[in-house]
Amino acid sequence: MQVAVIEFARNVLKFENADSTEMNPKTSYPVIDLMEHQKDISDYGGTMRLGAYDCRLIVKDSNVFRAYNKLSVKERHRHRYEFNDTFLKDYEKKGMKAVGINPETDLVEIIEIPDHKWFVGVQFHPEYRSTVLNPHPLFVDFIKFSMEK
User: Fold this and answer.
1) Model confidence over 95-125: pLDDT tens digits?
2) Thinking of the domain 2-36+49-148, which architecture would CATH place it in?
């Protein structure tokens, strides 16, 4: 999701040099930024956003809702940087939508481009919940969609 957000900012929103502050702390467009509560932490240790967090699916007519078939999911995270929602309205005006939000923090967890055949980006790690016998719902839906097309 983070790289997709950066690419969209640079090429669709025309935010020249948009980036993550993890890679470019001086970017003019910090579309991916250090989580607010992480900004005063210098000893990283176990300070990442680790573990399972709730995600509320806010768009029923979406790929992720079709994949999960429910409005609330819990997914595992491991990161310190997030989508900078200061720019959310810019993204939504140009076609990238936030379709999954953390209900406690309002952090963007899932983005989609509805005009694209199947474009989903997630902040969490679906591979953490996936096994050969029980693949993650997003992987299953993507493959199913691809086979139908």
Assistant:
1) 999 999 999 989 999 999 999 999 999 999 8
2) 3-Layer(aba) Sandwich (3.40)
